[in-house]
Amino acid sequence: MSTVTMSHSEAVARLGHALSDPTRARILLALREAPAFPSDLADALGVSRQVMSNQLACLRGCGLVEATRDGRRTWYRLSDPHLAPALDELLRVMLFVDPACCGPDGCTCG
């Protein structure tokens, strides 16, 4: 068994914090498909631009997304190419653990 360091546990805690909010989780899941502008994400997820701005700032602070200026606009993407497949695998594991959790009627996990 490998040694678990403080930096390992801090990294997992940052991911846990990011995923603890449904909007942040939805942002990460959306960005695994492709980079996006905050206004497009806000519209797609049905949240205000202010909420989107706050959640993206949190995800940036966690080191999970990065911003790139494109003229007067900024688009966001996952900060590491390993994140998209990791999120896909995490989603598969969670749906396997409790497939009814995220069914058509929404999340029943808690």
Automatic annotation (TrEMBL):
Q: Which PROSITE patterns match?
A: HTH_ARSR_2
Q: What is this protein called?
A: ArsR family transcriptional regulator
Q: Name one GO molecular function term.
A: cadmium ion sensor activity
- What would be one Pfam family of this protein? HTH_5
**What SUPFAM superfamilies does its record include?**
Winged helix' DNA-binding domain (SSF46785)
Q: Give the highest taxon in the source lineage.
A: Bacteria
HTH arsR-type domain segment(s): 4-98
Organism the protein comes from: Jiangella aurantiaca
PANTHER family noted in UniProt: HTH-TYPE TRANSCRIPTIONAL REGULATOR CMTR, TRANSCRIPTIONAL REGULATOR-RELATED
Question: Which one GO biological process term can you cite for this protein?
Answer: response to lead ion
